Amino acid sequence: xxxxxxxxxxxxxxxxxxxxxxxxxxxxxxxxxxxxxxxxxxxxxxxxxxxxxxxxxxxxxxxxxxxxxxxxxxxxxxxxxxxxxxxxxxxxxxxxxxxxxxxxxxxxxxxxxxxxxxxxxxxxxxxxxxxxxxxxxxxxxxxxxxxxxxxxxxxxxxxxxxxxxxxxxxxxxxxxxxxxxxxxxxxxxxxxxxxxxxxxxxxxxxxxxxxxxxxxxxxxxxxxxxxxxxxxxxxxxxxxxxxxxxxxxxxxxxxxxxxxxxxxxxxxxxxxxxxxxxxxxxxxxxxxxxxxxxxxxxxxxxxxxxxxxxxxxxxxxxxxxxxxxxxxxxxxxxxxxxxxxxxxxxxxxxxxxxxxxxxxxxxxxxxxxx
Length: 370
Hints:
Strand order of the largest sheet: 1-2
Largest sheet: 2 strands, antiparallel
Number of strands: 2
Helix content: 55-70%
Shape: elongated
Oligomer: single chain
Number of helices: 14
Structural class: mainly alpha
Distance between the termini: 68 Å
Radius of gyration: 24 Å
């Protein structure tokens, strides 16, 4: 490490310059492999390789399980109904396809996004061409933006569905979901093309943070639109849903006091909640236990968990991207923030399981259980 400091002594990377010599296009022996990453990044090399490897493997397995389960539920709904006596109305709802798309985005990021980070941390520079560096960063950003905007779509849909009440009817959920998913991809690709063609920042090897990324401080504008805006939608939507459920729970408690009966006993929410474990665990059916606060209380807690998870894992990353590139210890902060942020691709698997009771809080048609 001391030798590295001597070789790189006096080198101050420009945050608005893509260092071609830190890629395979212009490799400089005895300099590139030691000066293309700040010392703070190199000191955490083994920790970062472990974190990226763990998140990539676990995230890939979890999302494959989720996608396989959802596909099974959709194509074998009749078989499940005959064998287990349960019908899942969720497979006819747009949110079913949005959650499936979210898992698909997570899977693609784990397969195509994380390896580009792992390669840089392993070699200390990007061993392939500069063009490959740009395309890998482009692909990674498109997948990340698609992930964030799908989360925003799901949360906005829940809030809108709760607002519509009984006026909304479920019918062939893939029809409204497909145009929404196409719009997400068109928006994310278009947004990422802005720095790709150099209109606002540009892609390249960022020697300040030691990775292929959007170069120059103007790139934070793209991050604000691609990450900040959907994050705001998620927090606002789930906050609206949480407040709405809190009011509903208060009214139900008053009904219990006045009538002496449990309004959840024969409600559609309870019927659907009994299916919550099957959504993510294939054919294993296990009835969910009623909570002390009733079904609405359980749904309210699920919304709160979703919101807290999102804020805890996304907020540090969003704040970091808005920080100026000249801030001291930016490289070390980048390592810590991204290591924490990547765990979201595992947590999303758990959040998707929590989506089921949230869905039960916004639907109004009865789920028949025969």
